[in-house]
Amino acid sequence: MSKRVLITGTHRVLALQLGTKLRTRGDEVRIAIPDSQESGIDPADETIPWNPTSTLSTRAVIAACKSSLESCDLAYVLCGAGAVPTSFHEPSAVSLQEYVDTNFTGPTLMLKELLQHFLSQEYGSIVLIHHQPGGLYESPLYVAVQAALEQLGDELFRAYAESPVTLQGFRSSESDLSVLTDSLSEEAPTLRSSTKWQRLGARSGRFPFRNP
Predict the structure, then answer these.
(1) C-alpha 171: how far from its chain's center?
(2) Residue 28: what are its φ and ψ, rounded to 5°?
(3) How far is the C-alpha of 94 from the C-alpha of 178, rounded, in Å?
(4) What was the pLDDT predicted at 135?
(5) Residue of 15, 118, 157 whose CA lies nearest to 76
(6) Radius of gyration of the chain (CA)
(7) Domain ranges within the chain, ordered by starting residue
(8) Which residue among 101, 135, 194, 212 has the highest number of C-beta atoms inside a 10 angstrom radius?
(9) Is residue 28 predicted with pLDDT exceeding 80?
(10) Phi, psi angles (nearest 5°) of residue 132
């Protein structure tokens, strides 16, 4: 059965590719794209501008999705820190703050608002995707933000295990985004919430999720 889907996150390419895959599955999809990344977007992608550091903007994204789709059944939250200079002491304090706000505060605000929305309607699924390509950025700040995102997921799985909201989390170090989006579009969210992060693996020509 087709779903009404919202995709959010600061990884523009992954979000757009996943949206395309889900539409071929028959889902209705809206994609929240950071307003700093909106240039060159195809109108067919049906994106919603988003300021990841603004609570009001985050709420506006969910309101816009509800308005255009009448409701929302499923949300994908792409959690994964972007590129950062390997040096910790050289960037300005402002740039470090912006990095944390975009890559940690943004997903955190979105998760909070999505949980509130789904709890109020007493159903819904949230899929956390923690994308961490290996060996790309080995800076202290990158590692710290990635660890914080993973810990946040662990605590949410525990806190909302008995809620009407299905909360699942998948980790991937896959650098080929087509492999990742194929897997996610093939795997429908289950009726049970995760108790921990699941790892994306490859086996027998398919790409099922498996425990770490």
Answers:
(1) 11
(2) -90, 125
(3) 34
(4) 57
(5) 15
(6) 16
(7) 4-210
(8) 194
(9) yes
(10) -135, 80
The first and second tokens of residue 171, run together, are: 């980790």
C-alpha to C-alpha distance for 97 and 93, rounded to whole angstroms: 6
**CATH superfamily for domain 4-210:** NAD(P)-binding Rossmann-like Domain (3.40.50.720)
Quick check: 124 and 167 in contact, CB under 8 A? no
| Strands ordered across the beta sheet of 4-9 | 47-50, 28-34, 4-9, 74-79, 125-131, 166-172, 198-200, 209-210
Using alpha carbons only, give the angle 186, 3, 82 rounded to the nearest 5 degrees. Answer: 65
Q: Average of pLDDT values for 64-80?
A: 90
Nearest to 180 by CA among 150, 154, 201: 201
Residue 144 burial (CB count, 10 A): 14
b vs e for 147-186, b when ≥16 Cβ sit within 10 Å of the residue's Cβ? ebbbebbeebbeebeeeebbbbbbbbebeebeebbbbbbe
The contacts of residue 201 (CB under 8 Å, 6+ apart) are 207, 208, 209, 210
Higher model confidence: residue 189 or residue 125? Answer: 125
For residue 167, what are the contacts with CB-CB under 8 A and spacing of at least 6?
Answer: 125, 126, 128, 156, 157, 160, 193, 194
Q: Is the pTM of this model over 0.70?
A: yes
Residue 89, both tokens: 């002491």
Structural tokens at position 68 = 């255009």
The DSSP result for 116-178, as a single string, is: HHHHHHT--EEEEEEE--TTS---HHHHHHHHHHHHHHHHHHHHTTTSSSEEEEEEE--S-HH
